[in-house]
Amino acid sequence: MQLDGNSHIIYAEEEAAGTRLLMMEGLACFSHVDADTPYAEVEVMKMCMPLLSPASGAIHFKMSEGQAMQAGQLIARLDLDDPSAVRKTEPFHGSFPVLGPPTAISGKVHQRCAASLNAARMILAGYEHNIDEVVQNLLNCLDSPNSLSFNGKNALQFWQPAYPKILKMNWNQNLRSLS
């Protein structure tokens, strides 16, 4: 339907399913839009979401009102008032950290602790990871009596030649009682 030189869509009772474009009232092709103002609405399943202009400029619509849209389809082009105001992406020229060989994580406490500690180090280095999960895994490792047993055996193996024989026997008995 045309009214006062503007085209308007009249919907029937049975509408086609899909995503539809609705232009903002009073906005035509080559109109000027300000930054963060709506220039159109997208209707999906009776819900309307406004599309905001990212910057000020003249808008050139590539689709007509009421037209069904496909994902990734170009809706409009914007000739910017100030093209220098838009920050352009730049390629990454840095280097990524050297990664070690992959490690298998089993149900053993010391391997879970090492993996959780490594994940915590990666979080502190700025990588994204589930912080709550890492903290919970670290706490579980610290709460486990097997953690003390394993770390104690490692310490004993390292310092074993320096310990007196009676101390080694007492240490081994205590470790066996924890296991």
Automatic annotation (TrEMBL):
One of its GO terms (molecular function) is ATP binding. The keyword Transmembrane does not apply. GO terms for biological process: fatty acid biosynthetic process. SUPFAM superfamilies: Single hybrid motif (SSF51230). PROSITE patterns: BIOTIN (PS00188). Residues 32-78 form the Lipoyl-binding domain. Keywords: Biotin. It comes from the Eukaryota. Residues 79-146 form the Acetyl-CoA carboxylase central domain. Gene3D superfamilies: 2.40.50.100. CDD domains: biotinyl_domain (cd06850). Pfam families: ACC_central, Biotin_lipoyl. InterPro entries: ACCA (IPR049076), AcCoA_COase_cen (IPR013537), Biotin_BS (IPR001882), Biotin_lipoyl (IPR000089), Single_hybrid_motif (IPR011053). PANTHER family: ACETYL-COA CARBOXYLASE (PTHR45728:SF3), ACETYL-COA CARBOXYLASE, ISOFORM A (PTHR45728). This is Acetyl-CoA carboxylase 1-like.
